[in-house]
């Protein structure tokens, strides 16, 4: 009996290691197999997760328009479904729409097949129905992938993480702190992670308001410093895309487009 318990414990720990820990090390720590940084001159990409949100996303879109900035929105399928008009507006104003699961569930708690069918493809179907174009980029909630996602999902979706995190989901981070932190950390090629909704677990509902206030100053400063803010797909269209160890890899637009929607079964 004791032997069986020990064996089961070892198998369970082994499963955790293979299914969760190894993909985490490969993607989040080494940055392999994911896109988290471009290397083209003074271009950077702002990305906004967890929306669309009926209160904050319109304010964010106004702000981006005011500054002539294009960005990438990683939307939840359930929210895109609930707010189709807002989703259409994001697209109409020239921003990129990517997928961030149907609801904000971590991929570690789901099988790769469930993630693929019930979250990614389901959300991509919803967005495609609304805007007439199928999203090709995907960011998992909390940036965590399971082993199956790493092996299969990235064959048909470009998986995007980030190189600069705003820590903007807490109200404790005020607009000035956020602006200071981002200005300190943003470098050429940065992919910046921010949130246009505050209703996910662990976030403060009013936090996006502070993000918006901070972003206003950041966009002004970035322009003065000569940075150009582009969509994630524009950032990666350049010849050099970051792959953790700093190796430049050619991922030309055509090649990526071809690879994006290949089904795996
Ligand atoms: Zn999220």
Short synopsis of the structure:
InterPro entries: Glyco_hydro/deAcase_b/a-brl, NODB_dom, Polysacc_deacetylase_ArnD. It is built from ten helices and eight strands. It is an alpha/beta fold and about 260 residues long.
3D shape? globular
Q: H/E series, N to C?
A: HEHEHHEHEHEEHEHEHH
- Overall strand count: 8
Q: Look at the structure and name the CATH superfamily.
A: Glycoside hydrolase/deacetylase
Q: Please state the average pLDDT score.
A: 88
- Helix count equals 10
> In angstroms, what is the radius of gyration?
19 Å
Bound molecules: zinc ion
Provide the low-confidence segments as ranges: 240-265
State the CATH topology.
TIM Barrel
> Could you say which structural class the secondary elements and strand pairing correspond to?
alpha/beta
Main β-sheet: number of strands, strand sense, barrel status?
6 strands, parallel
Secondary-structure topology with pairs:
Blueprint: H1 2-29, E1 43-49, H2 56-66, E2 72-75, H3 77-82, H4 84-92, E3 96-99, H5 112-131, E4 137-138, H6 147-156, E5 158-159, E6 164-165, H7 175-185, E7 191-195, H8 207-224, E8 228-230, H9 232-237, H10 253-260
Parallel strand pairs: 1-2, 1-7, 1-8, 2-3, 4-5, 6-7
Helix pairs in contact: 2-8, 5-6, 7-8
The site of zinc ion (ZN) has 6 residues, from loops.
